[in-house]
Amino acid sequence: MIEKKTCCKNAVILMPEPVAEPALNGLRLNLRIVSIVMFNFASYLTIGLPLAVLPGYVHDAMGFSAFWAGLIISLQYFATLLSRPHAGRYADVLGPKKIVVFGLCGCFLSGLGYLLADIASAWPLISLLLLGLGRVILGIGQSFAGTGSTLWGVGVVGSLHIGRVISWNGIVTYGAMAMGAPLGVLCYAWGGLQGLALTVMGVALLAILLALPRPSVKANKGKPLPFRAVLGRVWLYGMALALASAGFGVIATFITLFYDAKGWDGAAFALTLFSVAFVGTRLLFPNGINRLGGLNVAMICFGVEIIGLLLVGTAAMPWMAKIGVLLTGMGFSLVFPALGVVAVKAVPPQNQGAALATYTVFMDMSLGVTGPLAGLVMTWAGVPVIYLAAAGLVAMALLLTWRLKKRPPSALPEAASSS
């Protein structure tokens, strides 16, 4: 033990020198992060499991219209959007572990709602109401589990690695959704809605049991900023994120229609390319944000995304569209963590949960409105135009981020001193 002498009046006291925790290497750091974000994986798995089943169940098995089938799915997204700011606020006050466990309990209760809906299948309206209630609870649970797991991960590995924590959260999100949909179809084929419900409940319960013994991190003490103040500090970063998310939205929603309009095959492979590029870029450049800075990385990503969307919109051959989709996935991959790092650091530590949640709402809203608006543009001007329009929106995000870099908002000096 290293000791140093400190004098207090006439006494000399030997005090142990604080030893800093050794720097985590890449593997150890990633393992620590994954050990926390796996709870977000579990929450998104409970989202993915019923995603390909419930619309058909509501429409075909229960006999309701396509409107009600779509509404049952959308209820979860609306609940997530409305509850996310509250999730961030509670994470700041109570600590992220409690919020994660609360969110996972919501995921468990959503499965219980599906189970009760199956039991009440003889009364279609009651069954539909129970399904809708389960979806609302799932949306609240996901917003709490997702926000809490990010902040818990940051508390475990330190704020220096917040970009990597956010990146891993995105990776497990995509992985869980990709795994959940086909697994949910298998569960439904095996045991009907009851089998699907029990699987959802089992996943959530296992995650809760794994989370409870894990050490928690302390909630930051200090007076929280009001929501309006938090919004005022992060909204510009959120706007840049919302504009850039349009590119992701038109790829995910309309690439199949784009290929059909062109008379090409391979739309599913194009979506696979997007996902591979998205996840691969996050894995290949884990330290890019720390080395170059969040705003610089975001601007580079915007440039790549713009090129990709322009290639898709002007594609005369399938290979051009595939390269465009690949570049769009690469470009969009690091946008969320790159801007998120800067947004979270724009507020004091005791408000970072609220900042992250508020920032994320902009992406939720963007993806919610991109589909309908792009559909209107597509009806009026054709499918390729929506990719050119999305490229224009991403260019606006690039310009906004460049302005933020040249002239930071007035709140940044205060935030820098507190972070």
Automatic annotation (TrEMBL):
Residues 199-419 form the Major facilitator superfamily (MFS) profile domain. It is found in: Cell inner membrane. Keywords: Cell inner membrane, Cell membrane, Membrane, Transmembrane, Transmembrane helix, Transport. GO terms for molecular function: transmembrane transporter activity. Pfam families: MFS_1. GO terms for cellular component: plasma membrane. InterPro entries: MFS, MFS_dom, MFS_trans_sf, MFS_Transporters, MFS_YhhS-like. It comes from the Bacteria. The chain crosses the membrane at residues 33-55, 61-79, 99-116, 188-213, 234-255, 267-285, 297-317, 323-344, 356-378, 384-402. The keyword Transmembrane helix applies. It is a multi-pass membrane protein. The keyword Glycoprotein does not apply. Belongs to the major facilitator superfamily. YhhS family. This is Uncharacterized MFS-type transporter YhhS. It comes from Salmonella enterica (Salmonella choleraesuis). The lineage of its organism: Bacteria, Pseudomonadati, Pseudomonadota, Gammaproteobacteria, Enterobacterales.
